[in-house]
Amino acid sequence: SYVLTQPPSVSLAPGKTARITCGGDNIGIKSVHWYLQKPGQAPVLLISYDSDRPSGIPERFSGSNSGNTATLTISRVEAGDEADYYCQVWDPTSDHWVFGGGTRLTVL
Amino acid sequence: EVQLVQSGAEVKKPGESLKISCKGSGYDFTNFWIGWVRQMPGKGLEWMGMIYPGDSDIRFSPSFQGQVTMSGDKSISTAYLQWSSLKASDTGMYYCARLRGAASDPFDIWGQGTTVTVSS
């Protein structure tokens, strides 16, 4: 089955740029979606189809996807961005959804 | 407003049965897939499966096939997730989510989650 690999944690100071990766075999040919989950809350769709921002998501959040790695980039990180971030793809060979293990973003 | 509202928290004993619900409103419930996602305590998101309320087409993750039942009642815009015999390892948060369109579209609307605790 298809596997998505994310770093367990990313830490950085406010105002810096966070890059959260999502690795998968030839993931560049798949559409990657990203979700944000704050403590005690349900996940929220953050980025769809590699780089599309749903309405209401700040422009500081962006996505890219190429080769074996998709990347979520958060510019000018704020304390309020502290959350768990998950990538997700649809695997058409199995007709299944796959989530990455999640990355906890900590703002120092 | 498009929303999914899930049933309340449950505390059950091992071996008991359980059915939790997810009610959609503000959109045509029949024409959008509903996915179910498990989150065990302190862990990540796991896709369990999904149901298309229009014709009850169901897809399961291999990890959950045979462990749970999914169903829907389009007349009341509600999807269900059911266990016949709970185990302690079923303890967790269960989310339903609407897929934006096709089975391969992202999960754009999420329910608030239902906490299931299984303990003797």
How would you describe this protein?
Chain A is 0% helix and 46% strand. With 108 residues, chain A is an all-beta fold. In chain A, the strands form two sheets. In chain A, strands 1, 3, 4, 7, 8 and 9 form a six-stranded mixed beta sheet that branches. A three-stranded antiparallel beta sheet of chain A has the order 2-6-5, with no helix packed on it. In chain A, a hairpin with a 4-residue loop joins β7 (83-91) and β8 (96-99). Chain A starts with 8 loop residues before the first strand and ends with a strand. The mean pLDDT of chain A is 97. Chain B has 120 residues and is an all-beta fold. Chain B is built from no helices and eleven strands. In chain B, the strands form two sheets. In chain B, strands 2, 4, 5, 6, 9, 10 and 11 form a seven-stranded mixed beta sheet that branches. Chain A binds chain B through residues 1, 31, 33, 35, 37, 42-45, 48-49, 54, 84, 86, 88, 90, 92, 95-102, and chain B through 35, 37, 44-47, 50, 59, 61-62, 95, 97, 100, 103-104, 106-108, 110-113.
